[in-house]
Request: fold
Amino acid sequence: MSNDYLSGLFSLDGTTALVTGGATGIGRAIAEALARAGASVVLVARREAELDKAVAELRGLGCRAARVSADLADRDTLKRAADEAAAVFGEPDILVNNAAVNLRPPLGELGEDVWDATMAVNLDAPFLLGQRFGPGMAERGFGRILHISSQQAFRAFVSSGAYGVSKAGLTALARSQAEAWSPHGVTCNTLVPGFVLTELNRRLQEDPERIAQLAAATTIGRNGLPEDFAGAAVFLASRAAGYITGQTLFVDGGMAAH
Ligand SMILES: NC(=O)c1ccc[n+]([C@@H]2O[C@H](COP(=O)([O-])OP(=O)(O)OC[C@H]3O[C@@H](n4cnc5c(N)ncnc54)[C@H](OP(=O)(O)O)[C@@H]3O)[C@@H](O)[C@H]2O)c1
Reply:
């Protein structure tokens, strides 16, 4: 098979990408995958040390990478961060809305503060970044918006609380964005992880029995790793996926099919 053929389908050379929460976990793996496929990548998250480490690692791999430290829960900060990120390599062609918090009180004990904090990062920020970058992508005739959702958008377990609601909103947001911008070459899709061993669920990982149960809930028989998202992200960001939009792709080891 010719490399030219594969490059024509999947290369991200010459594109720019913005990955929220791109310094750790799934976002870090997606950022690396996009960058190694040719995109210039800007990571946006709060923690400076993690951002610096990720950027240094990506540059060490020969990738073009930069970072913006910002709290996406704050709307003014988000708007400033979006401008700052776009100033590095140009307006992004690829937007990955991956940053999220999972504050786990059961719904009965969940206060307005947790609801607001969850929605601000998990749903409002993806909406606001879409409003900021989607129209420009449409005007340029090419764009890729990718949201990272959760099983809890589709079924309740381990205290879905506000988190599951915010993630369910992302599925509908991708469809609304697809309706608005796909006629102009912008695809908008959602990836749904299963249970992935990252910082986000560090507390759950302290219970080996629970971890084994979650692995058994997949058809493949293991929990997810951040690198499991590399291929799906590059594919959906690529020209090859130009006719796929408004869709939800489960990257979950078969958990949802089980
Ligand atoms: N791990 C799983 O099992 C699993 C399952 C389903 C879905 N997901 C989804 O996968 C995505 C990535 O999560 P992960 O598992 O890779 O965990 P993670 O490493 O904790 O990633 C979350 C990222 O979001 C960033 N973030 C959180 N709040 C932010 C804010 N206010 N402003 C800017 N950035 C913020 C964090 O960076 P800072 O703290 O530095 O800001 C962090 O890099 C999330 O959308 C999550 O809901 C994960």
Notes: The longest strand covers residues 186-193. Residues 3-257 form a domain with the Rossmann fold fold (CATH 3.40.50.720). The chain is about 45% helix and 15% strand.
